[in-house]
Amino acid sequence: MKLKIYNFSLLAFFFILLSGCTSIAPFNQRAYEQATSLKVDALILLNYAAEPYAKHEQKIEILKINLEKAYEYAKGRNKNEITTQQWLIIKDPSRNSLGGVLKKWESEIVLNKVFIEESKQLVSDAFDAVISLESGKIRKQ
Questions:
Q1: What would the pLDDT profile of 24-37 be if each residue is shown by its tens digit?
Q2: pLDDT 10s digits, 62-78
Q3: 99, 46 in Cβ contact below 8 A?
Q4: Helix, strand or coil for residue 115?
Q5: pTM of the entire structure?
Q6: 69-104 burial, b for 16+ CB within 10 Å, e for fewer?
Q7: What is the torsional sign of CA 92, 95, 98, 104?
Q8: Are 53 and 110 in contact (CB under 8 A)?
Q9: Which residue stretches of 20-112 are H helix?
């Protein structure tokens, strides 16, 4: 009888140990909603990039603030380094993602429609990476 209790205790210990050693954060509904919402906001805003930057500056600043919030939220979650790095890429003004497109729009005042469409695809793909990372995580029971 003692052997059965010992085996059960040992099995329970290893289960707890293994479940505590996951290498990625669990699914988070708020993070998923942030990513999908920001993707839509960014792509809609980029539709106006053929117009002067100043005309949309307030919306751009709101988008940048919300991107920063999403990044900080991701950064504050345990075992979420991969997603956090993807948010850095999206918001970085020196990269070929949303941050870079917004910087180019600001410096050039208006953007070429072909450039906008190509940029929208890159931005969409970057957000899809965050969305896929989050939706692929294990959901807590």
A1: 789 999 999 999 99
A2: 999 999 999 999 999 99
A3: no
A4: helix
A5: 0.82
A6: ebbebbeeeeebeebbebbebbbeeebebbbbbbeb
A7: positive
A8: yes
A9: 29-46, 57-75, 81-91, 98-108
